[in-house]
Amino acid sequence: MVSLAQTHRLASGGLIDRSAPLNFSFDGKILAGFQGDTLASALIANGVKLVGRSFKYHRPRGILTAGSEEPNALVELRTGARREPNTKATTAELYDGLEAASQNRWPSLRHDLMAVNQLFAPIFVAGFYYKTFMWPAKFWEAIYEPAIRRAAGLGRAAGVADPDHYDKAWAHCDVLIAGSGPAGLAAALAAGRSGARVILCEEDFALGGRLLADGGTIDRVPAAEWIARTLAELATLPDVRIMSRTTLFGVYDGGTYGAIERVNDHLPSPPEHQVRQRLWRIVAKRSIVAAGAIERPVVFAGNDTPGVMMASAMRTYVERYAATPARRVALFTNNEDGWRTAETALRAGLQIAAVVDARPEVSAAHRALAAKAGFPVLNGSVVGVDGGKDGVRKIAVSLTGGARAEVEADGLAVSGGWNPAVGLTSYHRGRPKWQDDISAFVPDSAPPGMVAAGAANGAFGLGACLSQGFAAGAAAAQSAGCSGTAGTPPVADDEAFSLTPLWHVAGKGKAFVDHQHDVTASDIELAQREGFESVEHLKRYTTLGMATDQGKTSNVAGLAIMAAVSGRSIPETGTTIYRPPYVPVAIGAFAGHHRDENFHATRLTPSHHWAAEQGAIFVDTGLWKRAQWYPRAGEKDWLESVTREVKAVRSGVGFCDVSTLGKIDVHGPDAGAFLDRVYINTFSNLAVGKARYGLMLREDGMVYDDGTTSRLAEDHYFLTTTTAKAGPVMQHLEFCRQVLFPELDVQLTSVSDQWAQFSVAGPKTRDLLRKIVDPAEDLSNEGFPFMGAREVSLRGGIKARLFRISFSGEMAFEISVPARYGDALVRNLMLAGKRFGVTPYGTEALGVMRIEKGHVAGPELNGTTTAADLGLAKMMSTKKDFIGRAMAGREALAAADRQVVVGIKPTDKMRRLRSGAHVIPKGEIPGPDNDQGYVASVCFSPTLDQWIGLALVERGRERIGEIVHAHDPLRGEDYDVELCNSVFYDPDGGRQRG
Amino acid sequence: MRIVCPFCGERELGEFTYLGDAKPVRPAAGASEDEVFDYVYLRDNVAGETSEHWYHGGGCRAWLKIARNTLTHEISSVEPAAGVGAAKVGA
């Protein structure tokens, strides 16, 4: 391995594994790091300061933070199909061979020609989209938008399918904890000892939160030792589950939480049979948000220069990763906590150029530290940064009293105080409240069952974090019904925290509030001048906080500046509404395994495997795969196969699997009365052993579904639905039974999956069935007349149901056997039917024959048609109430000029018809005023040797014989068709009764 | 969201289907067109407590009457529909 110099790595210390060196590349340059690094810490260790270009102005940007709040250091991670844009370098774990590239620059990061945008900065101000690209309107799509998209923006998507798998999983617990800092670990201890089932989610790969960087003493031992001891104890507790690399991102109703686990993002690619990420839905009785706080910047000119970094982030890089972001550090703080960075810098042997403290008083202890270490303490504020893509060179300070000073430094650590992470507690439209002593928003209300503890609750001291977390853990376990005792809480001292609020230092040059969206302090002032004072308007007008970081480092500063310029207090100005996800979550994780062929479940018919052996072409109908046609060798296209199948049925015998129809057993003394109320026609007077076609309406009077229902016994009906409505009709009938008509003694059982059903059709049907059915069964026209229905024995004794119903118009039966016999039945139909030339047919031939017979199906039962529209008005009983009766009588639904089903034939017999064409009076120019309907179903009729169709046409049935015009602008076709009777084949029905 | 089915216990939202307002009562046979129109189309847009029909299609197939607060999504009661189960009502 090539040993590469890590110029900014301390010789010792940190939580990195120096025995595990790793190589990685950034913009093609090979660099080195260690196991335990993030991409950001490894870049810092290699002295890399410039990592990206900004969204609008292409300004050089560096690393601002050390966590998931990072607005600047976004990279494209990995290459090819696994390229992942906008990945935060601060959370990406380093692995050997990692490849990262900077974004939004051309031709290179150092020489970005797009930085010319800065010259046009005056037009990129707040609301520039609304102001600049208004005229001419047609230029927007063609010119402005593509140009903006090229110039502004973030990384590039991979552009090809994601090769990895994502998983979805459920978990249940008593107490869910977000965060493994001192508050989270203390909460887990208390809840776990009390006997609670605990899940703790930590987004980092290491547990400990700020303890990993800031250390401290807990229970009189160093923090690292306390973490190890605590984790060891938690491991002994029976049901405490710690999930690292897992971010809690959302809070949903009823104690349901969303979490994203980055299972294998820390490896080049997931090991075989493993997923990249797993989306968790966690159901918890109680939850504790111990997600800590986010250090906030101060807004001043040049605050986006590479090398300007949050003070706590600088401590993290030095203490946790032994990487030094700068060699000569300046610190700008308005609070006590910021000074800890000076202590860290001294411990690490870095030079301190100066500490600029905006507070009027600096403690004696800190003054003594400065005197001892020999660095100046300046009372005042940073007003400018001199530097560029190579980082900070000099900072300008305005001293209290008005004088100015300049400080030479190659890095500037900034602390403006801390904002509790209030996102999770605010996701149910909760508004955080302002707390004066820390000048920050803290949770006020929280979703049911949730509390915040520690820094997330505004308690910044280590001792307070531990005691709040422990108390919250014990209380959550108790209220979740656990009776164990939490034992002794861990203890530590609290650090001093004093702060003088400081949000914005006026100065010359751009001062950034939202680094990721390039929103400056002057953009906010402009928004206020233009009247966008409400925070929700401010956000949308300036895009403040709308980038992928959701303004974690910028929102509060932005509204503080708005408060100042509009003369209101910060709490009066208020916050925007918080919405999940807390961190970006890949769409792939939400999809999980539901993609490609697993996008939805697949249902196979009982004859599927047999049909597949025959080489059937399958079509998706809902979840089902149905045989569409059965091609034979030598057939040149689907039409030839389908035509053969239709002719075979009409001249001999064929069969089709119709098991996909919904099937419902209706039992009970009131079964007939029940069916009378749900169908427009009457079933209570249906004789046992008979079948009847039924039509259902919705309560609004439109047709809902149709199907054949048979009476198998006095108190037993067998009802069928269309394939598409099998589930909805079952739900509808249960509603009718349970809610509308509870007085009826009737029960419903879905038996769709229990019966394999085949339509056997054609003049030789009886010949074939006599080979299948027990010879004792009478299948003659007298013994089994049209619309007969009864149970029969098959040869071999299997019981089957036989229905003499026909969708094809031929002499036909539907035969139904328990689903497990479906495969055997289809094979026996083929064997027994060989001598009769039996032909299996698919859904296409089924459709052709139903159009030839003028039967309505899905295209006509489309939710906008009435029974009368379908030519079935006579079925509507006038002697009883039924669902939809009253509304079906409304004037418009009974109007004479409604579009009704009618047959159509092209006047040119050779022409192909297509569904969707508009029907226009002949000789008129097509337009919305003379659009009289549309073509619903078409087919090539082998029987008539031409294309035919069913159309919905105004007064269609009164216009039989009229030539009308079919206008199909979608396909650019215009032709004449003749309106005709919708029953093209055997209009008197002699064949099906024969 | 979680719903406590009176037959199956606490279950996840995905097992249930929402229908709508449970307040309108289907008019008796012979009701005027206006009455039926109101039943079919008129709904209150309530901010607060509502009564709703839900179907436990992913479980026991019971129709449920659920009292829910539309502002907080809090469910205060779940009752089975009158005709749930095997026995005829009043038998």
Walk me through the structure.
With 994 residues, chain A is an alpha+beta fold. Chain A has 7 domains: 1-160, 2Fe-2S iron-sulphur cluster binding domain, sarcosine oxidase, alpha subunit, N-terminal domain (Ubiquitin-like (UB roll)); 166-291 and 421-479, FAD/NAD(P)-binding domain (3-Layer(bba) Sandwich); 324-411, 3-Layer(bba) Sandwich (FAD/NAD(P)-binding domain); 502-566, BFD-like [2Fe-2S]-binding domain (Arc Repressor Mutant, subunit A), CATH 1.10.10.1100; 608-659 and 755-850, 2-Layer Sandwich (Gyrase A, domain 2), CATH 3.30.1360; 662-750, Alpha-Beta Plaits, CATH 3.30.70.1400; 893-993, Beta Barrel (Elongation Factor Tu (Ef-tu), domain 3). Chain A has 24 helices and 49 strands. The N and C termini of chain A lie far apart (88 Å). Chain B has one domain (2-80): Folate-binding fold, CATH 3.30.2270.10. Chain B has one helix spanning 33-41, and strands at 2-5, 9-12, 17-21, 49-55, 63-69, 75-80. In chain B, the strands form 2 sheets. In chain B, strands 3-4-5-6 form a 4-stranded antiparallel sheet, with no helix packed on it. Chain B has a two-stranded antiparallel sheet with strand order 1-2. The interface between A and B is medium-sized, with 32 and 38 residues.
List its traits:
heterodimer, A: 994 residues, alpha+beta, Ubiquitin-like (UB roll), FAD/NAD(P)-binding domain, 7 domains, seven-stranded mixed sheet, 28% strand, B: 91 residues, mainly beta, Folate-binding fold, four-stranded antiparallel sheet, 1 helix, globular
